[in-house]
Structures are given as structure tokens and as C-alpha cells.
Amino acid sequence: xxxxxxxxxxxxxxxxxxxxxxxxxxxxxxxxxxxxxxxxxxxxxxxxxxxxxxxxxxxxxxxxxxxxxxxxxxxxxxxxxxxxxxxxxxxxxxxxxxxxxxxxxxxxxxxxxxxxxxxxxxxxxxxxxxxxxxxxxxxxxxxxxxxxxxxxxxxxxxxxxxxxxxxxxxxxxxxxxxxxxxxxxxxxxxxxxxxxxxxxxxxxxxxxxxxxxxxxxxxxxxxxxxxxxxxxxxxxxxxxxxxxxxxxxxxxxxxxxxxxxxxxxxxxxxxxxxxxxxxxxxxxxxxxxxxxxxxxxxxxxxxxxxxxxxxxxxxxxxxxxxxxxxxxxxxxxxxxxxxxxxxxxxxxxxxxxxxxxxxxxxxxxxxxxxxxxxxxxxxxxxxxxxxxxxxxxxxxxxxxxxxxxxxxxxxxxxxxxxxxxxxxxxxxxxxxxxxxxxxxxxxxxxxxxxxxxxxxxxxxxxxx
Length: 464
Hints:
The chain is an all-alpha fold. The chain has three domains: 20-221, no CATH class; 225-291; 295-457, Hypothetical protein af1432. The protein has helices at residues 2-14, 35-63, 65-71, 76-97, 103-128, 131-134, 138-150, 156-177, 182-256, 260-289, 298-312, 317-328, 339-342, 350-357, 359-367, 376-382, 403-418, 429-438, 446-457. Residues 273-289 have low confidence and may be disordered.
């Protein structure tokens, strides 16, 4: 229930900016222009997945022919006609159609037809099967629901239409064509309709988050474009300023040849030029750090502490080098988070905090294709995991977490607590060490926590 609540909370919060139709989930209002590019992106991202699950669905559908032979040998050939002559070839046909150009335009109705065909085939088997067997074949429809609602990338409206159509066909079959006993009819319908409703909710969530991710990706692209524009403007200002000073310098050079006063003016101009260059450089640095000024330097300090912990643990130098590099970029995923959230001086909302938590996944996406002798993307992905599985984004436990990520997790917590943040002052290094000591073996690796505590308490290590 909490997941359902969170889904609808996300819907309400995000719809303040991202406009979606509550039933069809299509982009509307100010976001309507995103519908067409979303459909193209969704098609490209779904095609391989659709083909895999069409093949898997067809194989499983045919494989259940063994069950037909065991449970109803007399009706086996009639059932096999449905499996091997009707439904199987239909799925193969959809698979082949997916390689044509028209599939992109008609993907949703074609997949809904395939979904309905598979379910209708099960209903026909229920009609043909003897009463001792037919009442249990409804379970096959639940498998079809799982396949249609969650695996073949159907949109909510198409999947719901196909699902309820199968419910109606099943009711017709179980009431008028091959009547089921009342108690079995009620029991089967309870599970059958419940599975359909759960499938609808799952399909709704899948499409909603696909649209949300696409929307956020577009927002990131817009933000990146704004940053590039600012950089271009800064470069143009620097170029013009440099050209201006070049002209001034030439004029002063001409005057210096005539008298000492000109020399003094030239020296003053040169001093002014140096200061101006320093200011220009500082402006450029400030533009980069403007994304999150309060945590500027956090990554480097965390990396330095992580390396010191690794050295205290006597890890190989190669591992320490990888920790230094991963630590220096462990929050790179925050580039995908709007700046106003990063610098918000008050408590974050649930949605804003959920977006912040996406930064480890975003960092992994950014670094996934980077060739390196170290698993940089995976270290960045795991640096908020915890030993008891309470971390994110994958709730890894114990040895499932890389040693580099376990070390970075401790250094990240210590540096964050000891530093100022927009929403609070520094908690102090002693509070950070108490946090590590208190949760040693629970949230943090025992060996890593002990090494960190020795550094500060025995060897008097200090954060820069």
C-alpha cells in the first residue's frame, strides 16, 4: 500500500510541472509537445524488450502443451490446435511484424491484440476441457495478465481494455458455455479479477514512471543547454575583454617609448589586466560551482578521506587509486538534479528527496560506458548502500557491496556531517565519528569503520 501511496503522491507532485492526463497518461497542456518524442523514445527503448518477451511468451504458451497431454489426453489435439496453430503463429506473426516500419505506428493495438489472443486461447481451452480440469485452467489467464500488463510494454489504456475484454469473455464462457459450479465460479473470479486489477495498477505505474523519466531527461537537457549558453557567454566576454586589453596594451606600448609617464600608465594597465584575468577565472569557476556551492569540494575531501582509510586498511595501491578516482566523481549524478533542489535551504519534500536519491543511479548511467581498470560506475552506483540492506538504490547487503563503495560510504557520511549544508550548520567531526561508531557492523563495514576511527582518534587525521 505504501508503494501505491507513493505513486499517487508522485503523480500529484510532478503534475504541478509535468502535465499528464490522469487516465490515458498522455502529456497535456504545457507538456503536450513531449508526447510525440516520448512515443518515439518509448518505441526505440521497448523494441528489444518486446521481441524477447514475445519469444518467451510463445515458448511458454506452447510448452504448456505438456500439461494438456497429462490432464486431458482426449481433448489434447483440440487444445493443441489453439496452442500450435492459432496462438503460437499469432505471436510469431507479431514478432515478425516488429521488424517492419509500420510496427512503430500500430505497436500498441497490435500488442493488445496479441495479449487478447493469448487470453482468448486460454478461455477456449476452458470451454473445451472436461469440467474436472477446466476450472483450474483459469490460472493460465493470470499468467497471461502478468505477461500482458508488465512485460510487453503495453500502455495502460490498451492493456486495461484487453484485460477487461478477457474478463468479459471468461464470464460468458463460465456462465453460459461451460458453466462452472457456483463456489468455483466465485473463487476463480476473485483471484482472476484481483489479478486483473493488480496488473492494471502495475501497468499504470510502469507507464507513469517511464513518462516521468523521459520528462526529467528533457529537463536535464534544457538545464544542460542553459549551462552551455552561460559558458559560451562567458567565453565571449573573455574574448572581448582580452581583445580590449590587447588594444590598450598596444596603445600603452606606443606611449612608453616617448616618456616615463607612459611607462607608469602601462604598468598600471598591466596590473589591472592581471586582476581582471583573475576575476574572469573566478567568474568561470563560480559558474561551474553554482550548481551546488555548499558542497563544493565535498567530493575531493571525501576522496582524500576514503584513500586514507584504504591506506590504514593496507589495501593495494591499485585499489586506493581507484577509490581516489571514484571518490572524486561520486556525486557526478547530481548534474541531473535541478539546481534549486541542491541548494534548497529548507527540508526537502519526499519527491525532492527521491530525486536526490536518483543521483547514484544517474552517476552510474553517466559512467557506465567509460572504459577503466576500476569499476567506477558500480562504485558510484553503490556508495549509498548500507551493510544491512537499508541503503539505496538496490538495497544491497554485506559482501554484495564492493569494498571501495563501503569505504566511500563511510568517508561520505563523515565529510557530510562535518561540513556545512544549505539546510543546517556543521554537526562537527565528533558527531560524525559517533555516528560511525554507533552503526558499525549495522550500516557500515566493521573493518572500514575501525580504520576511520583510528585515523581520527589515534592518528589525529583532520579534514582539510
